[in-house]
Amino acid sequence: MLSMTQSPDDHAARIRSEASAWLARLRSGDCTPDDTEHFNAWLAAAPQHREAYRRAERLWADLAALSRVAQPQLRQAQCFYARSRAKRRWRAAGLAAAAMLAGILALNPAIWPWLNAEPYQTAKGIRRTVLLSDGTSIELNTDTALRVSYSGQRRTVWLERGEAWFNVFHDSDRPFEVVAGDGRIRDIGTQFNVRRDLDQVSVAVRDGEVAVFAKSQSAPLHVNAGQQTRYGEAGGAEPVQTSDLMAISAWRNGILLVKNRTLAEVAEELERYHPVAIDVTDAKLRGLAVSGRFPANDLELTLKTIATALPVQVVAVDRDHIAIRPNR
């Protein structure tokens, strides 16, 4: 629960810090049964803990590609951690992480642009537009984090989580690329949307063209206006399809435009915009079809509308937890 003296940003930052510390501890090779018990209790204490830990795991996976060439430094850091005294475990975790990062930076100078890039982010329920020096604009949707690096040779954006709309000023001398998950999207003078979920990246183009470079794909996939594709950890990008740009871009006007989605999918989408966990445990309810136009910032109205249209009831379990159950 959020205390009366703690801001939402401070509360979220504290949870992210705790999640990172637990991840380091559990992967240290020196984790005890008592540690595991305390971790499980922390994880079960709040839905935000589970979400933060999933994101920490995702970040660890993203850094794996960078750390592969720095395995000696990583092993050295882990050994240092394992030798630390029990009463200094958490401090040792921080030192071990710092040692690993130093090794990665020494052998991977290409990571410096990412570290020096300008960060931009939004909280849940917040949208933001960033105007860059070349006239390019980036609209960040709810709960989005990205970094921007401009140099004389290239323009790079790392989409770390969430969703963004790019309106790019084309400059053939300085390519514009969005790095997301296991791939990258190169602009060829266009407007396009990129959404990054835990293991999937979706790309939809409104104007112009982009080239999508996905993992284990020998040649880029070209996506033109009115088309979309997606890629994940498994491999290359999926074949190009016609996109529903009205639904995809509705968030830019504060609208969730839902067309024949399951109730479970809609619940997950609402969790992106609001700091609550929405549980739909009944298997039959999870598969119910939902269509409609909902205000992204009004959870109460959205849930009331869904409850009116479907045989369900909405129950507020507590401040951070909502259950959708069969109507009785």
TrEMBL record:
Chain ranges passing through the membrane: 92-115
Source organism, top-level taxon: Bacteria
One Gene Ontology molecular-function label: sigma factor antagonist activity
Domain FecR N-terminal positions: 18-59
Coiled-coil boundaries: none
FecR protein domain residues: 120-210
Matches recorded under InterPro entries: FecR, FecR_C, FecR_N, Ferrdict_sens_TM
Keywords: Membrane, Transmembrane, Transmembrane helix
Keyword Magnesium: no
Keyword Transferase carried by entry: no
Pfam families in alphabetical order: DUF4880, FecR, FecR_C
Residue span, Protein FecR C-terminal domain: 256-322
PANTHER family listed in its UniProt record: PERIPLASMIC SIGNAL SENSOR AND SIGMA FACTOR ACTIVATOR FECR-RELATED, PROTEIN FECR
Protein name (database record): Iron dicitrate transport regulator FecR
